[in-house]
Structure formats: structure tokens, C-alpha cells
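Re: your question from the hallway

Yes, I did run it. Sequences:
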Amino acid sequence: MPENIFPLDSSKKFTEQEKLGHNRWHPEIPPVATVKPGDSFRVDCREWFDGAIKNDDSAQDILDAPLLTVHTLSGPFAVEGAKPGDLLIVDILDVGPIPQEEGPLAGQGWGYTGIFATRNGGGFLTEQFPDAYKAIWDFSGQVATSRHVPGVSYTGLIHPGLMGTAPSAALLAKWNQREGALIATDPDRVPPLALPPEAEHAILGGLDRGEWGRVGGEAARTAPPRENGGNQDIKNLSKGTRVFYPVFVDGANLSLGDLHFSQGDGEITFCGAIEMGGFVDLRVDLIKGGMDTYGVSENAIFIPGNVDPQYSEWIAFSGTSVTLGGEQRYLDSHLSYQRACLHAIDYLTKFGYAPEQAYLLLGSAPIEGRLSGVVDIPNSCSTVYIPTAIFDFDVRPSAAGPYQIDPGMGAPKASA
Amino acid sequence: MPENIFPLDSSKKFTEQEKLGHNRWHPEIPPVATVKPGDSFRVDCREWFDGAIKNDDSAQDILDAPLLTVHTLSGPFAVEGAKPGDLLIVDILDVGPIPQEEGPLAGQGWGYTGIFATRNGGGFLTEQFPDAYKAIWDFSGQVATSRHVPGVSYTGLIHPGLMGTAPSAALLAKWNQREGALIATDPDRVPPLALPPEAEHAILGGLDRGEWGRVGGEAARTAPPRENGGNQDIKNLSKGTRVFYPVFVDGANLSLGDLHFSQGDGEITFCGAIEMGGFVDLRVDLIKGGMDTYGVSENAIFIPGNVDPQYSEWIAFSGTSVTLGGEQRYLDSHLSYQRACLHAIDYLTKFGYAPEQAYLLLGSAPIEGRLSGVVDIPNSCSTVYIPTAIFDFDVRPSAAGPYQIDPGMGAPKASA
Amino acid sequence: MPENIFPLDSSKKFTEQEKLGHNRWHPEIPPVATVKPGDSFRVDCREWFDGAIKNDDSAQDILDAPLLTVHTLSGPFAVEGAKPGDLLIVDILDVGPIPQEEGPLAGQGWGYTGIFATRNGGGFLTEQFPDAYKAIWDFSGQVATSRHVPGVSYTGLIHPGLMGTAPSAALLAKWNQREGALIATDPDRVPPLALPPEAEHAILGGLDRGEWGRVGGEAARTAPPRENGGNQDIKNLSKGTRVFYPVFVDGANLSLGDLHFSQGDGEITFCGAIEMGGFVDLRVDLIKGGMDTYGVSENAIFIPGNVDPQYSEWIAFSGTSVTLGGEQRYLDSHLSYQRACLHAIDYLTKFGYAPEQAYLLLGSAPIEGRLSGVVDIPNSCSTVYIPTAIFDFDVRPSAAGPYQIDPGMGAPKASA
Amino acid sequence: MPENIFPLDSSKKFTEQEKLGHNRWHPEIPPVATVKPGDSFRVDCREWFDGAIKNDDSAQDILDAPLLTVHTLSGPFAVEGAKPGDLLIVDILDVGPIPQEEGPLAGQGWGYTGIFATRNGGGFLTEQFPDAYKAIWDFSGQVATSRHVPGVSYTGLIHPGLMGTAPSAALLAKWNQREGALIATDPDRVPPLALPPEAEHAILGGLDRGEWGRVGGEAARTAPPRENGGNQDIKNLSKGTRVFYPVFVDGANLSLGDLHFSQGDGEITFCGAIEMGGFVDLRVDLIKGGMDTYGVSENAIFIPGNVDPQYSEWIAFSGTSVTLGGEQRYLDSHLSYQRACLHAIDYLTKFGYAPEQAYLLLGSAPIEGRLSGVVDIPNSCSTVYIPTAIFDFDVRPSAAGPYQIDPGMGAPKASA
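Structure:
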């Protein structure tokens, strides 16, 4: 069984741990540990808000969620012999919530899904859902249920939302240039177009404290996925998956975090998924010079594991790239997926769900979101598939009409 | 076994058949046949170009493909008692190529995938692939192979690319208004932003010929999916699928066509999929008033069948919403899927495929295209999954480096 | 599309067809057609009783079923160049009921499952079910339902129950010797231990009529599976399957028949499965000398196809090798499977099924029957798995107790 | 996260633990703990030989395996309110090897598969394999590999081999009667027909020591599965499975053990599976009076979980009920499965495996063993399916002939 090379104490804050992680991308953050090709090891991961979200029936914590502090990453872990141009093989041997603990920290037997308020980051459907909502999920084995979203239980598709290698200085500069240029097109937008470097809340691991101001001022925020992998939020990076990351710095410097107990394609509620802390068991190896050999230079490639939850029946909804207001957009797959998700929400409300309950469900359940048609001008066609077996009742359309659930207390809400 | 209510003679043109279909959407096109709720029936379908594409080694026919004539639809089929506001249940009992025929018409034991030239419609990656290409696929049972794309064979995920109910006059007017407004923003664009009504090549079934000019001048083109379903190109509408369409006119007036032997999510090469003619066995039923009861008013919903080809290992590629030129776009899932597909193409070329072979493969193989992350500003993350078992060789990365295929004659090309 | 080299006219008896098949195994039955390695071809198959079983509500025809005449096989088909010692590759490209026909012959849109009376062959649970019963199944696309077994519908796992190569004279002699020896241990048993050669009802294809007496007197009955494959009744020999048969005579001389629309592991009702006539599309090839190269000399090996119906939830029952009377047997997996099936039947009767309805269901539904434990002396443990999705109601145990179906008219019964 | 109510210290023997389990079935063994309906809890389990088998390259320990001491069970656990006639619901929330430990005890990062010598219990193919063999498997996440069986790696189908409720006195008496009667038919057989009570090595938990002699003399051995579940060795009792056990005594008194990292249908090598110690997380509930309500009185029924390893391609072998010596047996499914397994072994040896390596592979890999035909007199047809993806090489037959592995050191052997 792999040795834990990054243990976390659930009773202490992220910054008070024996080994300090980081919440920004920068090549100068030194490795917190070094492993060899072929090594297996365990890493604990803190939930992305470091305990700010509580297991209660209020969404005030979601409304006030400290976005500047995320993500609390474990790492970097250097791999001996890794050089720029290599491919780093990462096998996800296991991943799960915090073992054998109950308590107030997400991952201690429970997790949460949030809808962010528009003024605090928003989400995929923020125009329709401008306020903050929260759902708490209880874990029982690999199954999650919620007092805030009744009538469903799903088998967790557990995965790290964020994993990646350190950028080189040149790559970091490229990120800052292009994202800065985007922000500059509408710098006051709410929510913003992108997140610029921010030094005040930066945590930079073992970097000399005297450098935190300079490095924090240029280090990349961890929200978006980029060439190094990063916050890809790919629900399929589950147990048994092999990922191949490009290496940009000596040692590769792998970091990871943002564990999810379950998530649908898109992580559409933003603080979507079922967020939690926990552990990941990894094994690393190298393909020397693999970036050029396999043409992999800008993004991770991966082979998903073979123990994902199996569902064999799905109810699916489609959407096209016409806005809710009726405006025709040109092959906008982002819009067509929004419309597909809204169609699913409309449908679920007929069974008694509040719209925000349906939205929280789509963010956390193992839904499939597919780019079904991307060439039939002017309409993209996106589709979203919900496994029917996650419902306690028959969710299929019939002449008998929809079953009516008891929506219970509903999902807690907080408005600005 | 269901009666064939729309037989087609493979030796005759679409317009010379005993029963005439149509290639435009309009409420005034009269039903070609009427069925009852609960009825099962067979419908033959012509391949979408009505035989213009040949089983040969030239792409000239793809370059000259007659886009104004598509799609050659079977129908409309009226359902007794269907009224606006109902949901039309359509069970796809079976679907396949033209039974027991060999010959020059796509569907007679073979099909084709095309990459359209930019000047003739283009496709998902038209900037990278401005010329026309073609691949011919031979069918053996439910398996397709191609002399133009060696080293792969896939089990067909056979489905109708296009199926839908007739629009009401009001709905049609809405389409023309919104698509016209889009076209007006850049009327001379190549390829165009959308396709306006076009009367000259319109085929309008049993409508009185004296009306063809007027109706053809306002009837909607069949390329895009819309509220009535239509050309959704959803690969999962396979055998055993139940679809629920909104009903907009008395009788529902269902039409269908554009059969595909196989297709990946997105149908990315435009004349993607493996195009063919063939048959579909359907059973229809009604949920009276179902549009309101289930909140389904703008798009089809569906429950996919349970006999799709099973693959258990996939190699996956991700992409973000940064252009090839390095520009950062804001949560553009269309772009991120393009980048994921380009990453897959780059990878496959390392095994000896020409880029256009890899592109044709992605358009026709049962790939999964997922909207993995849609909220992590500013980068969407899209992912594309290719089943490893479709390759005759080991397509996974390893220290040994990529196997080298014999690319054979390659995919025929035609330039403007 | 493959040429039909063995067409059958549904309106004529098996013996009145243009090409005559056979119902016994013997090396001297001449090939009815010859194909080349690599060839694809279609073969029509007659249902195993040649139309004796009717689509009605009486089981008299099952009680009187003419067992001496089975199976009405299509073939033999010789493969050019095949020699003893080769492996014959048979790809099942497609298989289905009689295309586009409705009528009185099983396979024309319907099929049947029968429980044989003890005095006419019996079945797996003949001690508990000594009388004859019948269930008629209607096909709708790939789905079967029955007026005699309400509350279930299943997607067909369509396959040929019987396929095999011709025995050599030596192999045939071995069969006759060993089966004769078994019969001799209890020659008057009802049902019999095995079936000796029987010349009167033998049909021997194109063999000179003058030889039918001699050859029929030594030709093997087709009921059991043997070294040549034969009546294996393996439900997984479905579309897309590749089978490898040992070759015992020049030309291999492949024959096939006994098509099933669906069947559970064991085909437990004997005239189990959903019996029908139909077609099979095959492609053949050879591995020269493959019997020795791969150590395959006594039985077929195979790679099942990848389009079998997918179910993801099952309810399972176990049984051990203790008789109903309480006697302990030593590792008797046949008995433990009987007990598992009886447990499943007991369970289903609690939902309102008659025992014979439950038995007919188990024989025809795509159940899994597994040898779970074969070493834990003295009890074997066999298990049977029923997909829960085949039921219209929730078949799982709960505190609410079992749902009660309307058993309808029940399954027709006939007693001796 | 569930509380551990039966912790085991890996450095101490089973009999030296804080809480003492048992290795016999008897109603008088008192509960070691009591839980409530709805409770979740963790239970540690000792590997079945309590550490007698070593992680080395000798099979002497297998030859000398102390069969009289097995199985070292955890429990009994009483459930409040459980009464005879109820059904006990047991949800397997999680199951795995000993967390985060490396060491000399099976389950500490490794496990073993053994072939027992005929004189020490034998196994399914003991006539062909009369000597003792061993294979050690190393765990990496959910994947197992072996230095003794090269060329394969499989994803663990982790499950408890043994779980069951306590028998009533009447049920125990029935067991002793019927098994004693069987033994009496051939009391000196090697291996024996069944295992009679044996007091000397009995461990009886918290039962007063003064009673151990009497109770041990009548308590049932744990090797066979029986009406209470017990040593069913059903590979599908994996994570997420819900089992329903009949209740025979107040409190139900559930016990469990014999964890397996992986196993094929049949556990054919006897000490088959990959044996290990570890943990199980359970949740229990009751269906009052459920035995009668659902007709479940003699065996467990269950609904398998949905996270089993997924494989989509299998190579399959068939066997009939003819002995290796050529004798025809009547519908003997046990024999036909033996023959199917021997055919698989013959095949694998052509790739360079020693027969015992192939046998060990079949015992431990997630193979499917099916009762394909049980009515076609006189031959049963059993089939065994091996997932092709577990092999590092292409295991399918082809004209190129079999790949040749390096068999390595081979499997350690020990002869009497």
C-alpha cells in the first residue's frame, strides 16, 4: 500500500499543515517531495475551499465563498529524471473521501454542491439562477444522497477535478498574456471573463516567503484548465485512469486537488460536483521525449479506468444554439448545452423539483453531456443524458403523467 | 413484421419514386401516408445526396456535392388524432442499410464519409481542411471498414441523422425570422452562417405543383436541428430508442432520413458519419397534451436503446478554448471541442495516418465528444474519446513508440 | 450484402424446398453449396419443428411435438480448401427472424417457448413441471412480449442455437459408442438418457435416397452438443460473434439452424428460448492447421459480439446441491442450478406469476446462469441473474411487499 | 464513515485479538457486537488461513495448509429486532484489502492463489493437478499482477467469499444429518465428500470455554455454502451489492470473512480467488416477515453492485459432459465446466503458459462460467469466458499463430 507523502490533518487549516501545498501555478514553487518513476504514493487533498462550506441548511457560506483562495493543491511532486519534452504517466490507483473520519470538513462522510451567485463567480446558467444555493450530500459507501435534493441516489464517479504539471516560465507568460488580453476587452464584467494573478491570497508552498509577493503577482490562478492539464474537471479521471501529461519543467512537478465524489459533464453549477477532501493513490512513470513522439504538447491525454458506475438506461434532452430570447447564434455549442440543460430542468420540475434542485442534480449526478452535432449550420445540437436508475421513481414520460416527489425542505438559498 | 409504407426503388431517382418525399420543412406539405397510434411500419430512406456520391477513388463528387437538394426525406407521415400540444412517441424498432442489395447507391453494402471543401459548406475543422476528401466504407454485417482509412473497423452505431415533426406556420415564421437575422450579419460569408429558403431545388411531396414556388420560397432548409427535432445527428438515436417529439400541426407529420451507418459525436466532417440509404422500422404513439405535462416544447427528448456497440477502453484527448493562433476565448465549448479533435488528429498522425484520414476517422467512428468543463473561466474543457478496440493495432502510448500503419492509397482529395 | 445460398420458402415444408437440408449428423451428407474462405453469404433457417407449433392458446402441439424430426438444419456448406486439422472461422454477421413476413410460421413476427411434458422429452425441471405448456412471443423490432407471460418485455439476444461442422466417420463412431453405452445403462428411462440413431425420420439432404436407410441408421441425432459444436444453445453466439470450429472432414461441411430470438443460460425449458425460423449472414475463413496450433480439437471456441442487449441491474438467486427432498449431493452443479432456478420461480410467484409462467420466463429471458462455486465440498453454488429492467414493475424486494401482476390468461397447458 | 466494530491487529493471531471471531457455524455462538437496522459499520476480516501462507516462492505452505482451522470469521453481529422469518438486508458499502499496510499478512498489499494437493482437499481439476501450487499477486490500486503468472493484470472484483446468518439448532441438525449421510457413503475418500464437525480446531468466539467441546462437536464446518448463505464464493458480491439473507435465530447473527481480491466463477483452484484479509463496510436493515413474503427461505438472494470491472471482449471455451477418458455422462454440468476449463488451459499453454499457470489464472481472473445448455441430452454445455484485455498480448486466434510469453520462474510447486 502506498506511503502517504502528503498527509493532511483534518483538524488544521491548509496553511498549518506539516507540509504546505499551493494555490497558484508557478515554476518556482519548489517540490514538496520527490518520487521515482515507477513509484506509488498516497496524497491527501483538501477540499477546494479549505473548510469554508459547512454541513448545514444555509447557503450563506456559498454566497461568501472565498474564491481568491482556491484551489488548495497538494504538491508539487517532482519525478526524478523528468525533463521538458517527456510525457508524465500518472496512474490513478485509487481516490476517495477522507478515510474513516466523520466531522465538519467536507470529505468527512459528506460533500456539497453549490450554485454560485452571479456576483461571486456565477455558473453555467447564472442568468437563470443569479442567487446562491447549496446541497449537502451524505456518503454511504460509494453512494451519495441529499436531504436537499430528494428522490435520487447515485454511485460516485469519484475523481480529482484538478491535476497537472507545473508550467515553464515561458508557458506561464503565455497564459498571462492571453488571459490578460481577454480581460482587457471587458475588465469590469460580472462575473469576470478571466482571473488575473492575485498575490494577497496566494499560497506558494515551500517558496521563500520573501518571494511570495513577486511570484504571487505573476503566478496563474488555478480555475481554468490549460496546457498542463489543471482544473479540467473531467469526470472520467476516475479510479484506474492513466493520464499522460506534458512536462514543461525539470521534475515535472505534479500537483493535484479539488476532489469530487461525483460530477456530471460540465460541472455546470460551477461549485458543481460533490466537493470534498480525501486521498489519491498515484503511480508515476515517464515516456522520455514522449511529447514529440506522440504529438502531445498542449493538453493531457488519458485512458479512463474500467470501474466507473454502470448505467444502462438514460433519459436525454437536446438543445440548439438559439438563445432563450429567441436569437439565433452560429454553431454555439456552449449555448446549445445550456439549452439542453434547461430543457432537462424544465422536465424535472414537472416531477415536483424546484428548478434549483434540478440544476444541483445536473451538476452532481453522473450525467453525460455530448456535442452531438457541431456542423449543421446554424444550430449546434448538444445533448444531456441522465441515468434513469438514479431516481427512486420512474422518471420516464408516460400517459400516466409525472410522479410527484416531496421536494422536502428544498435547497438552501442565499441572495446578495 | 411492419408493412413498408414508403418503399423506394434503388434504381430510380428520389423524384421518380412511386411516393414522393420532400427536402424542405413546411406545414403545407401533405402527408404521404397516415398511421394510427400503436402502429408499426417500415419506411425506406434515400441517402441524403440521392446517389450523387460514387463508390470510387475520387473526391470530385464530394467537391461538387449538390447541397441545395438535401435532405431527401421520407414522409410526412400523419398520425391519427395527433394534435398540437401532444407528444409524439416514436420507437425506432430497427434501422439498417438497404436490405440484400449490392450496387452503386450508398446503402447498397457501402457508405461514404466526406470532408466538404470550404467553398461548399466546409465543416468543423474547415480552416485546417479547406479541400474535399472522401472515404468509402464497406459493410460486413454491422461492421465497417475502408480502403481509404486502413487499420480500423467499427461496429455500426446505425441511426437516422434526421427525424422530426412538421413545424406550424408560426414556428416556421420564427425560424425564418431568426435565421434571416443571423445571415444578415454577414450575408456573403463563405461558408454561410445559415441557409435561407430556396425554391428552385425544393421538393415538396404531394403538394400541388402550382404551390411549389410560394411554399418553396418560405419552407425551411433541412440542414439544422430545430424545435421539431430535425437534423439532430445524434448518434445515439439507434435501434431500440424511444423519442418524444413535440407536435405542432394536426397529425404531427413525421418525416425522416439521412441514415448513418456510424457516426461520432458532432459528425465533425459535416458530410460526416457513414452516409447511406436504408430502412427504418418505427412504431408511433401519442401522449395527449404531453408537451405541457412534461415541459417539452422546443426539442425532442429520448431514451436511447440498449444494443449500442459496447467498448470498454477509450483513449481520450482534451482541448480548451484557446485558438490555434493562441488567442484566449471565453468559455467557447465549440472551440475547445475543435482543439480536442485536433489533438486527436495530431496524435493519430504519429501512427502514420494522414491528417485527413484521422479527421475522416473521427467523423465516422463511434467517438464520444463531451462537454467536460463549461464553467472554469475562461477555458471550456471538451474531451473526445476514441474506442481503442476499433484499431487493428495498439493505439495506446508506450515507451516503445507508436506502431506505424501502412496508410495505403490514402483518402481521395479534390481541390477547387 | 451477402447472397442467399440457402433460401427457404415459408409456405412450403422443409422437405419441399428447392434445396434440401438435413436433421442428422453424418459425414456422407453431401454439401448443398460450396463457398470460399473470405466469402459472406446468407442462409435461411427453418424453426426446429418445421411449423408444427402454432400461434394459438393451446399447448397440445407442444405435447405432441415431433421430436424425431429435429433439427431441420440448413447445410452442409463446404468451404474450399478446408482440411481436417484446420480451424474454421465463422463470423455471425447478422441473424434475425424471417424478414418482412407475417404468418403462421414461427419466425414470421412471432416465436414460442415450450415446456415439454416428461413423457415427451421433459426439461430441466421436469419433476416439478411434468406437463406441457406454451408461451407465444410477439416481436416488435428486437423486443419480445407475450400474452402468456405478462409484465415483461426483453430485447432479443438473437442467436443460432445450433451450428457445427460435420463429424468424420471415426468421430461419429465414437459418439454412437459412448452414447449407446449410456443408454444401455437404463434403456427404458423416461425421458431417455440419450437419443440413438433413428432412420425413419432422418432427412439427409442430397444424399442418394438409396443410402438413407443405412446412413440414417448410423447418423447422429442433433439434440446434444458435441466435439463439432452442434446444439450448444449458447445464448452468446449473437450478432458479431466469431466462432472457431474444428474441421473433421474435407470442406468442413458447416450446418446450422435452431434460431432463437432470446434465451437464458441453460435454455432450461428444453423447448426453451424463443424458437423461430429466420436468417443468418455468415462469413467463413480458415486457420490452416489451427486445431493443433491452438489446441482446439474437441469443441468450438468463440469471441462473442459487442452488440448484446445491455442491462445494468440484476436480481440473483443461488442454489446448492441439496435435493428438494433434502438429500445432500456431492458438488452437483446441475442440481445447484436447478435449485437456483426453483428459488427464482418461488420468488416470482409471489408477484402473481403462475409457476409455469415463471419457468417459461427463465427459459426465454436473457438470464445469466453461473457456476459460482464448484469446490466447496459438498455443495456446489450456482446462481441465476435476471435483469430487473425486463419487468414492467419493480421486482426488487422491499418493505412494501411484492407488486401484484395480472397473470392474464396464463400459459396454455396440455396434459398427457 | 462507518465505525469499525470488529478491528483486527495485523501483527496478532486471530485468537489473540481484542474481539474473538469464530470458524464454525452454531446458534450458540454469542454475538460479538449488536447493531441496529439502518446502521453502517466496518468489520475487519482475517485471511482464511490466518497468515499461514507466505509471500514467497515456495508452495510448501499450500501443501501443508491447515484446513481444519478455516474460516476465520468476523462476527457474529446481532441486528436488533431481527426474528426468524425476517429477511436481513446487507448492503456491501465497500470492501478492500487491509488499508495502508505492507507486510507479511495476505491483504497487506498482496494476496495468493493456491492449487491444493489431492491429499489436502484437492480442487476442481485435482485429477489433472494432484500437486500443490501457489501464485502470489501484488496489488496496485485495484489491479493485481503476479510474478508467478506473467503476462496478465486484472482489475479486482473484490468481494467477501463468505457471509451468512447463524443457523437455528434445527437447521444445524439438518446439515449434520444430510452431510453425515453423504460421508457415510464413502467415508475414506480422498479428498473427502464432506467435512464433519471437528472440535479440536474449533474457535467459537465468546462462547463459554467450558462449552467449546460440546458445541464444537456439533458445529458445522464453514467450507460449504448452505441455506444461510455462507461460503458461497459468488464473485459478484462486490461493492454496492445488496444481499437478502433468511433469518433463522433472534438477532440474525451475521458473520463474514474469506475476502477475495479477485476470483473467477467457480473459484476453481479451491484456494482459488486471490485470498486476502481486509475490511468490509456494511449497512444492515430488515424486511419483517420477508422470508414468507418473498419466498426466500433456503438461500440468499442479491442485487449486484454497479461498479464491477468492465470488459467488453471475451474469448470463450465450451465443454460437454464427456469425461477425459471418453465416457458419456448424463447432463453433468459440473463435468462440462471442468471440460470447458481444461479446454481453456490447453489453449493458454499454446501461448507458453505452464498448465498450472493457466489453471491459477482461471481461478483468480474475473472469468465468467456459464451453464449454457442443461437440457440437450445427454450433453450439458458449459462455457467459460476470459476477458481478452487482461492479457498484455493478443490472445485471440489468428493465422499468425500464438504469441509466446516468457513464463518466468513459473508457479512454485510442492509434492507430497
